[in-house]
Write a structure and sequence with these properties.
The protein has about 80 residues and is mostly helical. The chain has one domain. Helices cover about 70% and strands about 0% of the residues. It has 5 helices and no strands. Helix 3 crosses helix 4. The structure holds zinc ion. The site of zinc ion has 6 residues, from helix 1 and helix 4.
Length: about 80
């Protein structure tokens, strides 16, 4: 983990799944979309979660099993270049 997330980051990350599922009202979708554009760490989380959702959809599950999720996260983080 990096720095402590800002409150708006926590809110965005909190609603990421709903955002991806388009379950939020339009103004909130807009708000989070704007945040993701200006916040690379949240945008990265968004991309990871979208990827997970696509993979999970392909397997026919509604919700990512924890094991699958952590395996995907580990794979993505392992392939990500070091940020130092
Ligand atoms: Zn953020």
């Amino acid at each position: 983990m990096h720095a402590v997330p800002k409150p708006e980051c926590e809110e965005a990350l909190d609603r990421l799944f709903e955002y991806i599922d388009h379950e939020l009202p339009e103004d909130e979708i807009h708000l989070i979309g704007e945040h993701l554009k200006t916040c690379p760490p949240c945008e990265a989380e968004h991309k990871i979660n979208e990827k997970i959702k696509r993979l999970v959809n392909r397997t026919g599950h509604d919700v990512a099993p924890e094991e699958l999720r952590s395996r995907i996260l580990a794979t993505i983080r392992a392939t990500r270049p070091e940020t130092s």
